[in-house]
Specification:
There is one protein chain. The protein is an all-alpha fold. The protein has two domains: 157 residues, no CATH class; 39 residues, no CATH class. Helices cover 50% and strands 3% of the residues. The protein has nine helices and two strands, in the order ααααααααββα. It has a two-stranded antiparallel ribbon. The longest helix is centred in the C-terminal third of the chain and has 27 residues. The chain is globular. Bound molecules: zinc ion (ZN) (2 copies). The site of one zinc ion has 6 residues, from helix 1 and helix 7.
Length: 225
Amino acid sequence: MSSTDDGAGGEYDHCCKVGRVADDHSLSPGVGGGVNEYLAARWRGDDDYPETSLAELVEWFDRRVMGTVYRANDRLATDSRLAAEYDTLRSDDEVDRSLLVDDLAEDGIDGDALRGDFVSVATMYRHLTDCLGVSKPDADGRSDSDWEADKIAYAVETARENIADALQSWENKGTVPFATDASIGVRVTLECPVCHRQVSVERARERGHVCETHMTEGAGPPDRY
Ligand SMILES: [Zn+2]
Ligand SMILES: [Zn+2]
């Protein structure tokens, strides 16, 4: 079965995949209000919630789906178990994953279907902005805003979806057999213009520089000759 993330469109009775999955599982945030209000409030940082990145919202959503399915099938749903098994279900390690899928099957849970209900960052973004019409408050000096990380995650996810479409077509035409069975790695790499050392964009953000030798406040701007 396909775990293609449809995003908007193609889901006639629902706004998009997020709406369908939330409905299918009668998802509730566990606090007052509905899932949509909860997602919007956390994303914007309203109602005393700390402003939350799309990646974290996706994780919350997917795990909430897992927990609901687990409890419906009398499978223990502790936070630590959900976290570990969520990582396994999403991982590219076929062996680990199929072990877990077998284990889930013993509890009457279709692990592949569960995985197919997981949503992507791009889909969550479209759900919030297009379906719900939510927008982030403008840059208003909030220091905890992580829109930059959201923007990069969205770009990477969109690239991955577009590449997957191209692979599907190549597979259909026989240009590249079994192309859709490949896992797609999209990595954003930054390079120092002086020494050409490379670093992932996430790592650069984490450590606060692209190149320690040529591109820190102390080192000054890189010489480009
Ligand atoms: Zn939607
Ligand atoms: Zn350098």
